[in-house]
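Retry 2 of 3 after timeout on previous attempt. Resubmitting C-alpha cells to design endpoint.
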C-alpha cells in the first residue's frame, strides 16, 4: 500500500483513531429538530454509541428543559442549542455558541422539517415558502456552519433526512416533495466536494413514521396510505434512527453521496419507482 493510500484510509475513518493507537476523541453530533419524534430517537441512539449529542430546537421551545431532564435521567450526555434553521444568522449564532461551550461538530443530522399539505391549486405562498425554508434552505443554513471545520479536521458526517415522497411524490405535497427531492441533489453535489477530505454526505429517506408529523394527518387519509405500504404499517422512529446512526459511524466510511430509502420496501419493490432497466 502506498503512503498516500494509507493516509487516505486513516483519514476516512476506515481505520479508527483507536486502531491507530491514538486517544479516542469523543465525537460531537448536532441533530436539528432533535427533540421531535425521529430526532429524539437519533439522539438516544447516538448517545448510546458514546457520542456527545447537541439537540437543536427553536428559540424559546417550552419543552426543552423537560426533554433534557428526561434524556439525562436515562444517563445520556445531551445538550440543547436554540436556533431557527430557517434563518442563516440564527444558525451562525447557534454554532458559535456550540463551538464555544461544547466544541466543534463532527456529525450533522439535518432532521428539522415541517409539512403544510394542500392541493397545489389552493396552496398559498406562505405554505410553499415555509416548507421550502424549513426542509431545504435549512440544509444550507446549517451545513454551511460546520462543513469547513469538518474538512479541515479531516473527518465528518452529514446526514440529510429526506422522505419517500421525494422520489414517489405525494398528492397534496408539491412543496414538501420538491424540498425533499432538493435534499437528494444537495447531498450528491456536496459529497463530491468533500469526498477526499474524510467527510461523507448521505441522505436517509424514510417512509411514513409514527411521529406527531404523521399523527396530524386525517385518519382516513392515513389509513389509505398505510394500505399502500408493503409491510402494512408505519415505521417506529427507532427503525429510522438505526440506519442514520450507521451512516454517522466510522463503519460507514466508504458510503457517500447515497440515498438510503428506509421505507419498508415501498420504492424498492414497486416497479414504478425503479430506474429503467433495473
Ligand atoms: N390521488 C388522487 N386524487 C386524490 C387523492 C389522491 N391521493 N387524494 C384526494 N384526491 C382527490 C379527492 O378525491 C377529491 O376529488 P374531488 O374534488 O373530485 O372530490 C380532491 O382530490 C380533493 O381531495 P380532498 O377533499 O381530500 O382535499 P383536501 O383539501 O381536503 O385534502 C390533503 C388535501 C390535505 C392534501 C389530503 O389529500 C392529504 O392529507 N393528503 C396526504 C398528504 C400526505 O401524505 N401527507 C404526509 C404528511 S407526513 C409526511 O410528509 C412525512 C413523510 O415524509 C412521509
Ligand atoms: P417532528 O416530530 O415534527 O419533528 C420535527 C422537528 O423539527 C420538531 O422538533 C420541530 O420543532 C423541529 N423544527 C421545525 N421547524 C424548525 C425550525 N424552523 N428550526 C428548528 N427546528 C424546527 O417530525 P418527525 O417525524 O420527527 O420528522 C423529522 C424529519 O423526518 C423531518 O425532516 C421530516 O420531514 C422527516 N420525515 C418524517 C417522516 C414521518 O413520517 N414522520 C417521514 C419521512 C421524513 P417544533 O416541534 O418546536 O416545531
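Retry 2 succeeded. Sequence:
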Amino acid at each position: 500500500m502506498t503512503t498516500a493510500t494509507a493516509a487516505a484510509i486513516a483519514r476516512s475513518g476506515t481505520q479508527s483513531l483507536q486502531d491507530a493507537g491514538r486517544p479516542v476523541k469523543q465525537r460531537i453530533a448536532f441533530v436539528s429538530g432533535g427533540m421531535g419524534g425521529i430526532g429524539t430517537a437519533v439522539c438516544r441512539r447516538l448517545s448510546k454509541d458514546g457520542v456527545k449529542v447537541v439537540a437543536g430546537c427553536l428559540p424559546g421551545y417550552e419543552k426543552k428543559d423537560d426533554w433534557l431532564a428526561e434524556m439525562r435521567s436515562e444517563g445520556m450526555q445531551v445538550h440543547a442549542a436554540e436556533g431557527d434553521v430557517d434563518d442563516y444568522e440564527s444558525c451562525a449564532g447557534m454554532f458559535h455558541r456550540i463551538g464555544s461551550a461544547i466544541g466543534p461538530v463532527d456529525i450533522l443530522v439535518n432532521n428539522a422539517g415541517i409539512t403544510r399539505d394542500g392541493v397545489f391549486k389552493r396552496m398559498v405562498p406562505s405554505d410553499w415558502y415555509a416548507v421550502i425554508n424549513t426542509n431545504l434552505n435549512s440544509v444550507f443554513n446549517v451545513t454551511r456552519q460546520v462543513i469547513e471545520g469538518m474538512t479541515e479536521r479531516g473527518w465528518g458526517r452529514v446526514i440529510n433526512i429526506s422522505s419517500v415522497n421525494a422520489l414517489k411524490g405525494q398528492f397534496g405535497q408539491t412543496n414538501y416533495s420538491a424540498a425533499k427531492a432538493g435534499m437528494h441533489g444537495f447531498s450528491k453535489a456536496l459529497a463530491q466536494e468533500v469526498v477526499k477530505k474524510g467527510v461523507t454526505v448521505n441522505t436517509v429517506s424514510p417512509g411514513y413514521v409514527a411521529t406527531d408529523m404523521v399523527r396530524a394527518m386525517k385518519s382516513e387519509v392515513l389509513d389509505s396510505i398505510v394500505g399502500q405500504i408493503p409491510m402494512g404499517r408505519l415505521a417506529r422512529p427507532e427503525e429510522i434512527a438505526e440506519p442514520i446512526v450507521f451512516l454517522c459511524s466510522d463503519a460507514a466510511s466508504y458510503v457517500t453521496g447515497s440515498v438510503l430509502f428506509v421505507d419498508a420496501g415501498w420504492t424498492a419493490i414497486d416497479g414504478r419507482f425503479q430506474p429503467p432497466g433495473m
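Attempt log closed. The pocket of NAP (ligand 2) is lined by residues 32-33, 35-39, 56, 58, 61, 84-86, 111-114, 134, 161, 163, 206, 208-209, 211-214 (CB under 6 Å).
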